[in-house]
Amino acid sequence: MIRDILVSTNIKEMFKFNIYQTAKINAMKRILTILFIALLCNTCYSQNKIELNLTKGKVYNQKMSMVMAIKQAVNNMDVNINMTINGSTAFTVTDYKAGVYDINVAYTALSVKTDMQGGQSISFDSEKADEKDVVSTSLGLMKNKPFHMKMNRQGKVLEITNVNQLFTSVFEKFSHLAPEEKQKLQGQIEQSFGEKAFRNNMENMMSFYPQKPVGKGSTWTMKNNIVSANVEMQMENNYKLDEVTATQYLISGISKMSSPNTDTYVEVNGMSAKTAITGDVTANMKIDKKTGWIDEAISSMSLKGSVSIKGNDKLPDGITIPMEISGKATISAN
Questions:
Q1: Angle, nearest 10°, between helix axes 165-173 and 179-193?
Q2: 0.90 exceeded by the pTM?
Q3: Is residue 50 part of a domain?
Q4: What total of structural domains would you count in the chain?
């Protein structure tokens, strides 16, 4: 009898213990489940959709400065050229529909300086008040003459219009120039500030936006082509989200540049030429979290290769010019 009672008591205690253990295990499972869900949510929230979020009616300013050194070997003689290009641009958002921004773009300041061997220097500046300096005066006349651009939230330029009005006031000012002089002047301006040049600059500068949300440490690749003075370069841009602060995304990038058609001759300054150039561009960017606009971007470029000119009246045997190009560019929103 006593043994039966003891056994019964033990069974009850064991039953209570099992219930307690089961409850404890179930509670632990619930805690682990909650922690797992929290971890998943934290992962979700750490993903960042980096894209433009501009406001209609606002003006977004941008300053650009580039210092570039070009080393060439012509007929076994070294020819070194240093260039400094500065510009300020205002982007006014006039509308936003279906993921596309309508933006009025206007240059607010432009300058170009070229230093050559022997102490020679040529400079043009939109702020220079000298009507004898045709190029500087032309840059001044181009100031605050808006043209139109359509761009999506990933920074892709969809359309550029009304760029020709930049040149209209220039040719009105210099109506006395002979037709060939006007054509030459227009060619010079278009090469640096025309539609193709502007599109290339924008697409190269805004190519970093990822196509999907990314987290700290994420990497992505974007490809684009740029064309300058009929010389085409192919770019493979590899980006990484290094850090996310309270106000900015910090992004680094390494771009591989190369000539895609090294055996193809194109018309450059009235001559047939082909290019074979490769190199790297490294960049560090600070992107505003609220607007997606570039707060600051600093890039360094190092290229090497050659330009081959086909034989012509001036160069019957043609010529191949080895060259090295290095440079640093800074972009800021101030």
A1: 140
A2: no
A3: no
A4: 2
Looking at every residue in the chain, the average pLDDT score rounds to 83
Given a contact cutoff of 8 angstroms between Cβ atoms, the answer to whether 153 and 53 are in contact is yes
Report pLDDT digits (tens) over 83-132. Answer: 999 999 999 999 999 999 999 999 999 999 999 877 889 999 999 988 88
Q: Measure Cα distances from 15 to 12, 24, 276 in Å.
A: 5, 14, 83
Strand-pair category, 266-268 with 59-74: unpaired
Gap between the Cα atoms of 299 and 281, Å rounded: 7
> Do residues 123 and 163 both lie within one domain?
yes
Contact criterion met (CB below 8 Å) for 109 and 87: yes
Q: Kindly state whether residue 53 falls inside one of the protein's structural domains.
A: no
**Phi/psi at 191 (5° precision):** -60, -35
* Structure-token pair, residue 132: 């004898």
Please answer whether residues 293 and 287 qualify as being in contact, where contact means their C-beta atoms are separated by less than 8 angstroms: yes
Cα–Cα separations (whole angstroms), residue 315 to 231, 267, 270: 20, 15, 12
d(CA 81, CA 72) in angstroms, rounded, equals: 8
Q: Which residue has the higher pLDDT, 314 or 159?
A: 159
Question: Domain of 67?
Answer: 59-332
